[in-house]
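note to self — DONT lose this again. spent like an hour looking for the file last time. sequence + predicted structure for the chain T wanted, 658 res
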Amino acid sequence: MKVAATPAPPLKTGDNQNIIHRSWFRCINELHLNPGEKPAPHVETADRLSQSCERIGDFLNVARAGIGQLFKQAPDVGYVLLTDADGVVVDSLGTDCWGDSLGEAGLLAGANWHETYAGTNGIGTCIHERTALTCHHDEHFFAGNISLSCDSAPLFDATGNFMGVLNVSALPTPTSHGNYSLAAYLTMFYSQVIEGASFMRHFRDCWILRLGTASELLEVCTDMMLALDRDGTIVGATSTALRQLGGDPSNSQPQHGNASSLADRHLSEVCSCTPDEVWNMMRTQSTSERHVLTTADGQILCASVVAPRTVARTGKPQSRATTRSDYSALNELAGDDQRMTHLLDHARRLVDKQVSIFVRGETGTGKEVLARACHLSSERAGKAFIAVNCAALPETLIESELFGYTAGTFTGGRGKGKKGLIQQADGGTLFLDEIGDMPLHLQTRLLRVLSEREVLPLGASTHVPVDLTVISASHRDLRKLILEGLFREDLFYRLCGATLFLPPLRDRQDRSHIISRLLEQESQKLGNCPHIADDAMELLMRYQWPGNVRELRNALRFALAITDGPSIHAEHLPFEIRFPGAAASGAGGSALLDAPQLWETHSPPLAETDANDPAVKLRACLRQNKWNITAAAAELGLCRSSVYRQMRRFGIVPPTHI
């Protein structure tokens, strides 16, 4: 058994000073750093940052909820940072009022605060010491960091592994440690909250015993917990529980991984109770019921029991209606790309866990394809999969489309009313694409659907229950939208039970697999199966694919339509793939649009009759308006959503589309 470690009690002033002194000694004598220097923040590459996020993916989802709550409690105190075990900032939250000074101070995602790069500081020193600390003003090693005041606490997962650091940093800082005690307290408190949530999630198949001295506060206690198997044997413990029940109570420091005093011991051996009393306590039917336990040293503790999610309160396993092992829909989405393999492994574990999945990725990376594959790999595969593009639906119609309406609600509406898309997904999966574009007033109604599992059609007075899994997606940063007041924070946490990051096509190592798979799919529609010649494959592999998988599919459709032989060669590919430099040479890729001579040199002229073709007419209008959708819609007398629909229908992708 390992132990989920929580931060030590607040350090005494002398303890904190000793930690800072030890760090300065390391920086000078071991790292050979110069305190008078003002080095720029060490910023990792986007790929390195992505690897950090993926490596701690499950824990990161829990921690992000914690930093959101921490920032709400202390928005004026500082900027909240979350790092991995190497000191790389993987998430941050704060206001934008400091502007460029945030980047200069290294308070943004990607910055590495390890002592090797930043000397003595709240994050790097916390990584080395594995304890909560404060690094205030000139306690920082480098002169360039003395304007900062930082409070940090280490984060450990449910099995005692060090995961990273929770940090509050401030630029406009107070003048003394005493004035900053609130930030220090909140940092340690929310590190306990994060680790407690991780402990509960990791041991969700066990009985969780919450312990405390105050009966009224047990519902929110997350620091002192035990995990028990069905026989009442201890299989997990937080460090606070270890100190209180199995270690030296006078030792305030966590003993990470040293759980020998509790490992595999029955609860009756640790507390004064019989095995039968333990069994009866574990069969408790209500989490509000309280029990009293006495420790070996005579301390009286209150206890409440949380039953496992997958085991009935009687101790007998709950049987699932069906068990699926067919993940072929997910398996087909990747070749040998390590990031995608890791993502799909997470997806297979999540599909039937009643966790709302949020898919983050650039436009065209295949977010809906991934969502549909999750649905087909779940127990709901035989039910409906309803996809809703929140950006494409006009704001005046999205409410009636989502929630439906009763008879007589609208003039010109269906006489019998209409069942909304949410209700149509009952029993299956609802996919909300581009959720960041949903109007704010509808987010409140959607939140009720997710929390209460019921929907109220327009014009109705009775709620209709719905049973569905929700998968949402966006290319936008929802956290930034929250700060801008454009997205509800409570809805964010409902939707983002787990986040899957889809990498862009240009960064994937399995592009040849994707090309072959898409070519096979598109060839079947046309009844032919040409081979991709080496010259064409070289161009396809070298191209950066700003439109991602969607642009690749359109390029292959173009090539299949052009070629008459058994092979696709370079000359059969679209112009922008054969001559990517021409498309990227101007600002925003506009050189291609402004160089008709170049286009005419390498592409056959359109026939006279082509000018009347709707697709040709739309493409010409978009080019004339520099791919400004609003301007093109005004010229054509259409709304923007209609232009987007026609673009999808004709397979038109802007050369600068991301």
